Amino acid sequence: MSGFMFDAVPFIVSAGFVLVLGIIIVTVIRGIAQWNKNNNSPILTVEVRIVAKRMSVSDHTHHNNTGNGHTTMHTSSSTSYYATFEVESGDRIELHIPTAEYGMLVEGDVGRLTFQGTRYKGFERSRPSGSAR
Q1: DSSP run (H or E) holding 24
Q2: CB–CB of 109/125 below 8 Å?
Q3: Residue 126 and residue 50: Cα distance in Å, rounded?
Q4: b or e along 63-83 (b: 16 or more beta carbons within 10 Å of the residue's beta carbon)?
Q5: In sequence order, what are the residues at sequence separation of 6 or more whose Cβ sits closer than 8 angstroms to the Cβ of residue 55?
Q6: How much is the pLDDT for 10?
Q7: 82 φ, ψ to 5°?
């Protein structure tokens, strides 16, 4: 039985390594494909209404070996911002929004969304009729 363990462990470790490497490669290929698709998409400007906003917070923990047998831990987080826009036909599109613009968008606002594929390019709020510029 112990001989089986000595034979199985390298196989399991190798299979795990290949699986993780495969996931990384697929993720990189998908990222490059999306980047290429966005670059080849036209820049569109459409009339929309903002129907939703959301944030996604990711926490990251880093362990650092100080070299003297001690390990320090550093925790950080990052926040991604998204808005969902609805066009006149009722179709919706959710786009990643830059941090600086997220606070300027308000659910219910109507205006012109400019985007390229899945890339947010900007939102210009419509001015109510009769308002001053």
Answers
A1: helix 2-40
A2: yes
A3: 12
A4: eeeeeeeeeeeeeeeeeebeb
A5: 79, 80, 81, 82, 102
A6: 84
A7: -135, 150
Please count the helices (runs of H) and the strands (runs of E) in the chain: 2, 5
100: left (phi over 0), alpha (psi -120 to 50) or beta: alpha
CA distance 108 to 100: 19
**Cα(106)–Cα(75) distance, integer angstroms:** 31
> What global pTM score does this model have?
0.70
Name residues whose C-beta falls within 8 Å of residue 60's C-beta, 6 or more positions apart in sequence. 75, 76, 77, 78
Of 113, 108, 115, 109, give the one whose Cα is nearest residue 124.
113
Amino acid of residue 73: M
CA distance 9 to 124: 59
Question: pLDDT value at position 1?
Answer: 54
Q: What is the per-residue pLDDT across 10-60, written as a single tens digit (0 to 9) for each? A: 888 999 999 999 999 999 999 999 999 999 999 999 999 999 999 999 998
